[in-house]
Amino acid sequence: MKRRVLLWMILFLLLSAPASAGLNVVATLPWIGSIAREIGGDRVRVRVLVRPTQDAHYVEARPSMILAARRADLLMYNGLDLEAGYLPVLVESSRNPRIQPGMPGDVDCSRFVEVLQGDAATGRADRSMGDIHPLGNPHYHLSPKNIARVARGMADSLSAVDPGNRDLYMANLAAFERKLSQKLKQWSGAGLEGGRFVAYHRFFEYLAAEFGFHIVGYIEEKPGIPPSAAHIQEVMERMKEDGVTKILTTVYQVGREGRYVSERTGAELVVLPHDVGSMKGVDDWFGLIDRILEVLKGGTGGGR
Amino acid sequence: MKVTIIAAAAALFFLTEVYAVENIQSDERRGTAGADRTRAVALESGAQMKAYRVNPKGGGNLFNPAITLVLDFIYMDTNLSDEEYDAREIPGYRTLHDADGHGHGGFEEGFNLRGAELTLSAPVDPYFNLYATLTGTEEETVVEEASFVTTSLPAGLQVKGGKFRSAFGRFNAFHQHAWNFVDAPLPYRAFLGEEGLVEKGVQVTYLPDLPVYTLLGLEVLEGESEVLFGEEAESGAHAFTAFVKASSDFGEAGTLLAGFSVAGGRTKNGSIEHGSEFTGDSTLYGAEVTYKWKRSRRRSLLLQAEYLLRHQSGDYVEDAALPTAARRLERTQDGLYLQALYRTGRWGIGARYEVLDLFRDDFMEAGMKRDFGDRPERITAALEYRPTEFSRMRLQYNHDETARDGVDREVFFQFVFAIGAHGAHPF
């Protein structure tokens, strides 16, 4: 009996031997996976944990995620507490020393970026204010300026873990930067400057800051909390005052409040992709920004 | 009884209404119009741009441990009188009463402060994380859990040590406030007691790099769990558990987790009948299966079942105060619970069915089988309202036929609140 158990254990150990060359990168969100693929090229196998259609604020740890983290050489995540509900348990349960806090494989992408303070700016933070992010607005992935910094940070992180391929990562980074500067030229003609919108959640602040448009109100009164009738009334008044004709939402946030405001004010409910893969044809990070700007300009609606 | 249900339902309704209406906040932005608006809007956005700055993370306050306080407050009502309720037991299984005389999950009719649970956690150094949970009731504060977990062992190994909730079975590892119903399922109550298997000891787990999630574990425990082992069976560690759990995803939203566990050890306790003493060996086997389906934040379904089988053999003295000879006791008993929980938005509904004596109810005293009557059963329904992740209200009804003398109809109205650090949830 005991011998059989021992044999099983040995079999498990043999099976658990490292599979093949190349780095295992585990990315929490699809956009992180997208940038990691650009910088890592053929040297990395990227596994994304959160489904593109899922709300990144409400993810639960699954054992399959623990298994993926177990094999990871690098764990890349959004940070700013966006993953606080599942990442700590995942990292501890992974039993993987390479991705523990402070190790080279622990890549908090928010380390590389400039954070829009948002909730942090008010100076006061407690949960009576809803599901706020006291470390700053975590949705920096819609900021080309920040993505350039994240790409550089990823190239450095990959090089630190895999110094032999540093040249490759730097070459991939250079290619990414060339593509980005081209795209920036193309995007600069978006003509969104001075535009006024209302949004459901504080999700598009970085985009607004970089493309010069304004979000004058939020249907959501407090993050993560359904709005009160009084607040919705207020938002509708504000929309009338400012001549707002578009309400920005994401796939997972199209709720009856947004539809109600849209019906009452005649403003269009614009469904934007919130991450790579959340809508058909949005296959990488460039495609994500392309699509968002296209929709904001044209007002053709999201198209699922 | 009826009055309580109506009052509880009314209170729940009232609370949801309060949340729906919410406070009206005025905004000082009002009062500008026309061309001034453009300027005002631009100024507002300008302020946003100024807030752009380098990520402030990495300050010195990160050395403070994460602190969470959970309040678990329960109102209970039953059709039984206080005497009937306190004397209630599960015949043939256990009659052990709590120190304060409550034999039945520790509840009292009326308001109950089940606990204020304070959890502290932080990395110790690059090699260990530390967790401590202090649970305060009105009478005392106990160290419910205080354990270290390694983070940097190679090859998928992890060691946990201290006092902790054993990874035996599925339900056991969860803290009271995280349960899907107010009380523990019947098999757990019968075989492990309301607290479950919480022991001092060491746990080693191994997560091999297989295509499918497979966790193997062993625990060496002190063996003090009152109901299963008793406190004085032997000095030195004299209990163990072993478990294996496997999980796979089914589609984008479904996850299945299944496992087998065994716990065993030397036993000396008086939980079988009042004043009795049993000395011998106990083995508890467990089989678990959990299916979770989570389409979105709004909708999820949880199906969970566990089967427990306990075998005990040893010497039994019916009244330890009298100089009677010990008789041979050999008992093999089992139990099962099935539960379902469906959540949509802030609401959830749950149902649970529990039964003992499902396949085995052998209670052999000196070679003679003893009969304790009907198969103990219980049916539970629950309604849950969760305004946010940090607050939860639950209305629960138990139809309890575990004792010979009549049905216990229990109603619970539970409030659970958490403040402090956002705890990460295990699967």
What does this structure look like?
The complex is a heterodimer of chains A (304) and B (427). By secondary structure, chain A is an alpha/beta fold. Chain A folds into two domains: 15-184, Nitrogenase molybdenum iron protein domain (Rossmann fold), CATH 3.40.50.1980; 191-298, Nitrogenase molybdenum iron protein domain (Rossmann fold, 3-Layer(aba) Sandwich). In chain A, 42% of the residues lie in helices and 13% in strands. The longest helix of chain A has 23 residues, at 166-188. Residues 18-34, 49-60 and 98-103 of chain B have low confidence and may be disordered. The relative contact order of chain B is 0.13. Chain B has one domain: Beta Barrel (Porin), CATH 2.40.160.10. The two termini of chain B are 36 Å apart. In chain B, strands 2-3-4-5-6-7-8-9-10-11-12-13-14-16-17-18 form a 16-stranded antiparallel beta barrel. Chain B has helices spanning 2-21, 35-50, 82-87, 186-191, and strands spanning 52-54, 66-78, 110-125, 128-136, 141-150, 157-165, 198-206, 213-221, 239-250, 254-269, 277-294, 299-317, 327-344, 347-365, 368-369, 377-388, 391-401, 408-420. Helices cover 11% and strands 51% of the residues of chain B. With 427 residues, chain B is mostly beta strands. At the A-B interface, helix 1, helix 3, helix 4, strand 5 and helix 7 of A face helix 2, strand 1, strand 8 and strand 9 of B.
